[in-house]
């Protein structure tokens, strides 16, 4: 790589850095990177840190020695607290977060009506986009308390992480849309049912919608929208505010990739989007890069020497070692070529490489090792 080196310790130590968002394709070590960053911030730089994962694979809990994670930050034990830092971790529970938002911004009676609505039950658990919007809500909650010196966010694979960025704008479009005004109109016209209103006003349209969706779904949807009507402005305001926080210099986006074409292509795709959205892109982390101890010995010389030993019938193990070295050198070349497709396209984005480890990271000691390699 020819890009400027990313100084991870400077980033973690800077009190102006309040949020780090780790983005990348699936399977590139993004969760491990987020956890290692959080651990190093706590142990080396004395920061009270929370790592929020939106990835439901639960790898974060395993790597931190926790039996499980939930919607409430849990303190990670076994952390060197000499510097005064702490490490906490949590995993987004989108339904619980949605429930908390409803409870915080409406009356107990109205909250009970919303929780009992079948449309709300479906939307808060399974609807596409709800997870990303609730991630924005949770990030906003964590940031607003000023309890944390640093929040590290581990997002889902990158195309889903783009949904994380798009959630506020999508919500605003929904709130301002014609269909929403239609659905909320019963509550604003004396409480007439959605179906009655639509039937009286639109005739054929209502029969078509009823045939496709069913009258009960329309009733549930109308009740859900009417119940949430007073909260919509708050949803939009908080989403827009969190989006502004993501654009602020206090936030740093880190792209995480492995030296594979698809992963680097995803990182480049995300970088383009971040630049277009004026999001603060701090750098690229290239995980699982290989290196050779005898890097001055080329693959060609190794293979020539191995062939000479074979011909002489001598030192079979040495010849095998030379061939392994030649294969490793070629792999390193391929990885550097793949990495260059990103660094050449984004020469102003600093980068750091992390050497491939002999085994997956499953504990705090492993996270310390990754943190040291990052720094």
Share of helix, binned:
55-70%
Pick out the low-confidence regions: 186-206
Structural class: alpha/beta
Radius of gyration based on Cα positions? 26 Å
Q: Give the overall pLDDT as a whole number.
A: 82
Please describe the topology of this protein.
Blueprint: H1 8-13, E1 19-24, H2 30-45, E2 48-53, H3 59-63, E3 74-75, E4 86-91, H4 94-104, H5 108-116, H6 118-126, H7 130-145, E5 150-157, H8 158-175, H9 178-188, H10 194-202, H11 204-213, H12 215-228, H13 232-247, E6 251-257, H14 261-276, E7 281-289, H15 299-312, H16 316-345, E8 351-355, H17 364-374
Parallel strand pairs: 1-5, 1-6, 2-4, 2-5, 6-7, 7-8
Antiparallel strand pairs: 3-4
Report on the structure:
The chain is of the alpha/beta class and 375 residues long. The protein has 17 helices and eight strands. An eight-stranded mixed sheet has the order 3-4-2-5-1-6-7-8, with helices on both faces. Strand 6, helix 14 and strand 7 form a beta-alpha-beta unit. Helix 7 crosses helix 8, helix 9 packs across helix 12 and helix 11 packs across helix 12. The chain is elongated and about 90 Å long. The two termini are 16 Å apart. About 6% of the residues have low confidence.
